[in-house]
Amino acid sequence: RDVYLDIILDSEQFACAGICETCQSAEATFNCVTCAGDHGWCRPCLIRSHQSLPFHKIQLWNNMCFQDVTLADQGFIWYLGHGGEPCPSYGASKIHGDQDGRVDDITETGPLPQDTTPVTIVHSSGVFTHNVSWCHCQGSDPQHLQLLRARLFPASSTQPRTVFTFKVLDHFLIDTLECKTSARSFFEKLTRLTNNAFPDTVPDHYRELMRVSRLWRDLKNRKWFGFGHNMKSGPGPGDLALFCPSCPQPGINMPLDWEQKYERQVNYYYWYSETIARQWPVACLNMRQPKEDIFLSDGLGYMVTKGEYQAHLASATESRERSTCSNHRAVNAANTNRGNLRTTGVGATACARHGCFIPHSVVDFQKGKWQVLFNILLIDRLDDKITSSHMNIDYSICNAIKHAARGINDSLVIYDVGCQWSLHFSECVNNCSSLTLPDDTEIVVAVGKFHLSTHKLAGFPRYSLNFIIGAGQVDGEILETLWAPFNKISPTARSMSQAHRQEILDDHMHNSNWKKLVQIVKTLLQKYKCANKGIDDTKVPFQELTHSLEVSKVSSWEKDEKRAMEQYGEHLDIYQLQIDKGELFLGSFHFHMLFILMR
């Protein structure tokens, strides 16, 4: 410990005091704590050596200790448009009281060129203020575009005085995704890095960060998905979102002759909804002036388009029925009213095998969880309104199937209250113009293995994943694991505008799918090895059990199984446990009780 402390203290002394290491003539009084190694410069050499390093932190030796100073105070000027050199059309020749444009003659208290403008620059290492000299050549860009070409994102397009480096914006996006850092916390960190002793002296640009980060996120998404190279056509619904690389998608990851090569393909969807009642508190407060809310990517990611979704909900009236199955808390808490909230939660659809969110299928809830009441479909003959308690879920699942189907007709939908939802889903689709499915779509409904245990025993064989061909080793609860990171951003998202909240949720879902994509090969390889081991471990015991049974019984069971797999429904009841109640001999029972009492 003592040795480490001695070395740390030694590193804080001015090891290069004396002559400037560059000009070898003037006294060295400046040191840079960002540059690697020990250095000592005079003021002119310091400016010259840091002409392309504007975000380094400088210290001045006052013969007693180091004093923090800035490059701008020492005469540093950031020239735009000419590779760090003064503009030849204006340049540094127009200096008050001095016609010599050399940087060497600009002192800490000396004059500056007439065209310099103090600009606050927010960087990943702190908040800086630099004197910026603009390009005045004929046909030069306006100031905000000159800053953008220098990789500085302006907070305003008219007379910009605050900018953010591309690097700090990238850092902010990564921090929000990995550390769930709020914009306020991130800027407080930058404030502390700038001046830890007196953070109040650092200008507060939190609001500018909020606005610029939204623009930066939108621009980066459009660049990543190729829309920066084709400006004629913009992105459509779900075009700024990644999907699963492993789920079957004709034209993307399947051969052209897949219909002849493969006997059957099934898309697996897991629909799960969470609200405040289920600890998924991505609620959103009412805005004072909702008309000022501006959407940058409405419906282009994972959240559905606002206008179309609201029109769909307007065609439904609320149903207040109770469950005919088990007394599910998520269902019976649906009628809770929260008047101060614009949305009370979200519901999403993801592929059940790999846990990738499906683009343009995530919906908001408006009050409690009334969307997951019970699918009692009524048609109002007077105003042709559809009364359904699953309108939100129906919209999400229809959008998910349309996005991922691409010619695959069979879909497995796993939903925690699928037994109630599936009762009249097809009728709801047929009677609602905003709900559409591809032709010949066949849907098999199941309930996740965790939620199935809370249902009535009679529904176990009909909705269990164990008895569905092609389901494989899927538990149907993968979104339970995907929700966990979102709980950390819910306090921040609660007070956001609806547009900003949508962008944040889209960004985190995109991040989740991206992680799945880059790890998919390793993940599938592990699952493949595990599946092969499971087959090897169970093959011999299964064959021994089969050989120990009567051939006629085995043959009869196989016929029943084939019929159940083809027709589903009540035919799956063959898997229901048949327990015959035994007769109770009262005489023996009384004798046994009498014996116990006598003891």
UniProtKB/TrEMBL annotation:
Coiled-coil intervals, chain numbering: none
Domain CxC2-like cysteine cluster KDZ transposase-associated, first and last residues per copy: 115-197
Official protein name in the record: CxC2-like cysteine cluster KDZ transposase-associated domain-containing protein
Domain of life, source organism: Eukaryota
Organism of derivation: Suillus discolor
